[in-house]
Write a structure and sequence with these properties.
- With 459 residues, the protein is α/β, with parallel strands linked by helices.
- It contains 13 helices and 20 strands.
- Helix 8 runs parallel beside helix 9 and helix 12 packs parallel to helix 13.
- The longest helix has 24 residues.
- The chain is globular.
- The protein binds S-adenosyl-L-homocysteine, iron/sulfur cluster and FE3-S4 cluster (F3S).
Length: 459
């Protein structure tokens, strides 16, 4: 892109993290818009750049500094042209290492922790006055208040939306930085969530994904008693126009009977559950402070499947946690075999400063982690392929979201979050139709729209 193009004034936000980080990035972009910095597609065209960072693994955190190196150059070139460029670092690295970032990177103008996004306008103003503000206080409730979507603030034609309902985590898994970067668990007021859902429905959104670091720990003590996630789902099911409800990420300990029953009783709650287990070895689960055993996880899965037999399950795994032996790793492989996942994320353990895991003896060698990860991923990939192959011949509701790569094709999602391509008219985008799955592809399924008009119904 032409570096001299006259689009200064633009805002550019880059997300590096989890779904909540992506959601936060869109809110930051909204705040920049409100300050007159309309979104641009390239940092070269921006007057304000915000990197929304992730601290979960070393690699994720390191990206920030390499990216800042490049942006520093843009800033220098700009300075020569007399055009200003403000650089902000937001997100979980900002929270964990904000002061260090300001010290190490002279090009950074402001730092915003994940609970302080709403202070962006103030940060911009102060940065323009030559200060280098560092906002890393925990002010979650204020953030929820300030980041409410203004009426109708969704992209035109947007069919799916994230809604943050809970932030922070009290679980303190011994490998994880989230309780330190996002702070204690806070749930958003149910009436605010419902109002946002209604506004989104009015704007044409059909599917909501409720977000929280520990989303099924949602608990809001309102006038009519405590609202759990199950109760929220019951209420959100009544919102006209919203046809599908999803949520992520859940902890096994908070998977209560009411929530399991919601999967059975509420047709809008999709049969898909991301329920991280991390390891199949009790010794390791204990050291990770997960507070459940492998057998308890399996029993929970049985209960969930009894309520909703077709549910698609996904998980997160960590290999090479300190002290993990070959035998422990075999236990993880056995658990995967026992459950049969539709998909999963798996990672090599990354030692994070400040977490209890970083101090443990028995850190596992990088090579060993690499071999274990490859073996685990091969099994998980095979299960994902099997899950998709098992869909062939089945009839399922597809919410069409966009046009496909080839003319005449439209693409949507199955209840199980699979991408489904069919030949069909673009007028169907935004509606749910029943489709027969014809064959699996590498990343999506191919289907055919069934002649009868379909409604979102249970098999
Ligand atoms: N409950 C959270 C989990 C966030 S982290 C959520 O809302 O998504 C996502 C996943 O990253 C975890 O489930 C875990 O599998 C992985 N992870 C966290 N810390 C890690 C570390 N130190 N090393 C490797 N993987 C890690
Ligand atoms: Fe991290 Fe564990 Fe909390 Fe998930 S539940 S955010 S893995 S501490
Ligand atoms: Fe990363 Fe923070 Fe999300 S550490 S995973 S961006 S909560």
């Amino acid at each position: 892109m032409d570096k001299g193009s006259k689009t200064a004034g633009g805002g550019y936000v880059k997300s590096y993290g989890c779904q909540m980080n992506v959601y936060d990035s869109s809110r930051i972009a909204g705040l920049l818009d409100g300050q007159g910095h309309v979104q641009v597609d390239s940092p070269l065209d921006a007057e304000v750049i915000v990197l929304n960072t992730c601290h979960i693994r070393e690699k994720a955190a390191d990206k920030v500094f390499s990216e800042l190196g490049q942006i520093r150059q843009i800033k220098q070139e700009r300075a020569e042209l007399g055009r200003p460029l403000l650089i902000g670092v937001a997100g979980c690295v900002a929270q964990a290492e904000g002061a260090e970032i300001l010290r190490r990177e002279g090009a950074v103008d402001f730092v915003l922790g994940p609970q302080a996004y709403h202070r962006l306008p103030e940060a911009l103003k102060r940065a323009r006055d030559g200060e280098r503000p560092l906002f890393i206080d925990f002010e979650t409730n204020e953030k929820f208040d300030d980041l409410r979507r203004p009426n109708g603030e969704v992209d035109r034609g947007q069919l799916t939306a994230f809604v943050t309902i809970q932030e922070g985590c009290d679980k303190f898994c011994s490998f994880c930085v989230v309780p330190y970067t996002r702070g204690a668990e806070v749930s958003r007021a149910a009436p605010d969530v419902i109002a946002e859902a209604e506004r989104l429905a009015t704007s044409g959104v059909k599917e909501l994904t409720l977000l929280g670091q520990n989303v099924n720990g949602y608990s809001w003590d309102g006038p009519g008693g405590v609202w759990t996630l199950a109760r929220l789902f019951e209420r959100l099911s009544m919102v006209d126009g919203i046809e599908r409800l999803r949520y992520t990420t859940s902890h096994p300990l908070d998977m209560d009977d009411d929530l399991i029953a919601a999967h059975r009783d509420l047709p809008k709650v999709m049969p898909y559950l991301h329920l991280p287990v991390q390891s199949g070895a009790d010794r390791i689960l204990r050291a990770m402070n997960r507070r459940h055993t492998a057998a308890e996880y399996l029993t929970l899965i049985e209960k969930i499947r009894a309520a909703r037999p077709d549910i698609a399950l996904s998980s997160d795994f960590i290999v090479g946690f300190p002290g993990e032996t070959d035998e422990d790793f075999r236990a993880t492989m056995r658990l995967v075999e026992d459950v049969g996942f539709a998909g999963a994320f798996s990672f090599k353990y990354s030692r994070r400063p400040g977490t209890p895991g970083a101090e443990l003896d028995g850190q596992v060698e990088e090579n060993v982690k690499k071999v274990r990860l490859a073996e685990l991923q091969a099994l998980l990939d095979a299960q994902a392929t099997m899950f998709n192959a098992g869909s062939v011949g089945r009839s399922m509701d597809v919410l069409f979201e966009k046009t496909g790569r080839h003319a005449g094709q439209i693409v949507g999602r199955s209840p199980y979050l699979q991408s489904v391509q069919v030949d069909g008219p673009t007028e169907l985008i935004g509606s749910v139709r029943r489709c027969t799955i014809v064959r699996p592809g590498p990343h999506s399924l191919f289907g055919a729209i069934e002649p009868e008009q379909g409604v979102e119904a249970r098999n």
